[in-house]
């Protein structure tokens, strides 16, 4: 019962967070029994023959934000949000796979190897030893964009390429906006590309309303 994922799941009781039904130890092997869900959000996207409507994306993302709010209010953050870890049954979405979750008040240093690279926040890519719930918000911004386009927003092939692709969409950070990030980059000898702050979001997510773009932008701001 002291295993991190079990401890985290026992602290959660929300309709948009997967429920752990039972833990079974048998012949040295540990089995987790969860409530049944049909598939994950990545499978939903792969099986879709057309782009989702804003109404569908709104319904799904609202549920994830409700689950995250519950988690954050209880002192935890997920650290590994990606479409594979969001389970779906019809219109119901639940956050799953809390094995990487941490308590917000737990002592750093945190590992920088969290979340599939495409959904990883810049501070994590830059090796920050201290981060928290904002990394979940960043991941949700990328997932929202992917639901609209059915392709990753920042499909980097390495950490450096990931940072480059982020900068090309939202612009390179400047000192008065994100001095901590520039210090992190300097410490690891990384130089952000000289990309203007021109907003390329609309071009990256075509055919989406201004309200949707603005909501994603809030979650894609360089903040540590």
Write a brief caption for the model.
The chain has 224 residues and is α+β, with helices and mostly antiparallel strands. The chain has nine helices and seven strands.
Detailed description of the structure:
With 224 residues, the chain is α+β, with helices and mostly antiparallel strands. It has a single domain, classed as Orthogonal Bundle (Transferase(Phosphotransferase), domain 1), CATH 1.10.510. It contains nine helices and seven strands, in the order αβββααββββαααααα. Strands 3-5-6 form a three-stranded antiparallel beta sheet. A two-stranded antiparallel ribbon has the order 1-2. A two-stranded antiparallel ribbon has the order 4-7. Helix 3 packs antiparallel against helix 5 and helix 5 runs antiparallel to helix 9. The longest helix has 20 residues.
Compile the SSE list and pairings.
Blueprint: H1 4-10, E1 20-26, E2 29-34, E3 39-40, H2 41-47, H3 54-73, E4 76-77, E5 86-89, E6 92-95, E7 102-103, H4 122-125, H5 134-149, H6 159-170, H7 179-187, H8 201-204, H9 210-219
Antiparallel strand pairs: 1-2, 3-5, 4-7, 5-6
Helix pairs in contact: 3-5, 5-9
């Amino acid at each position: 019962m002291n295993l991190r994922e079990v401890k985290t799941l026992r602290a959660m009781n929300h309709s948009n967070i997967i429920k752990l039904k039972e833990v079974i130890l048998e012949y040295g092997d540990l089995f987790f029994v969860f409530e049944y869900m049909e598939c994950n959000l990545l499978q939903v996207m792969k099986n879709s023959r057309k782009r989702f409507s804003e109404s569908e994306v709104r319904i799904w993302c609202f549920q994830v934000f409700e689950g995250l709010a519950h988690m954050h209010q209880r002192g935890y953050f997920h650290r590994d949000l990606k479409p594979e870890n969001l389970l779906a049954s019809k219109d119901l979405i639940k956050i799953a796979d809390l094995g990487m979750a941490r308590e917000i008040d737990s002592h750093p240093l945190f590992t920088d190897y969290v979340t599939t690279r495409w959904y990883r926040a810049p501070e994590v890519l830059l090796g920050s030893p201290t981060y928290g719930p904002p990394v979940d918000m960043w991941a949700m911004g990328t997932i929202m964009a992917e639901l609209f386009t059915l392709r990753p927003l920042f499909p980097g092939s390495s950490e450096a390429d990931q940072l480059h692709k982020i900068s090309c969409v939202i612009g390179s950070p400047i000192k008065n906006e994100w001095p901590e990030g520039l210090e992190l980059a300097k410490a690891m000898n990384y130089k952000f590309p000289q990309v203007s702050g021109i907003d390329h979001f609309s071009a990256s997510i075509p055919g989406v309303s201004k309200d949707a773009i603005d909501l994603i932008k809030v979650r894609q701001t360089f903040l540590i």
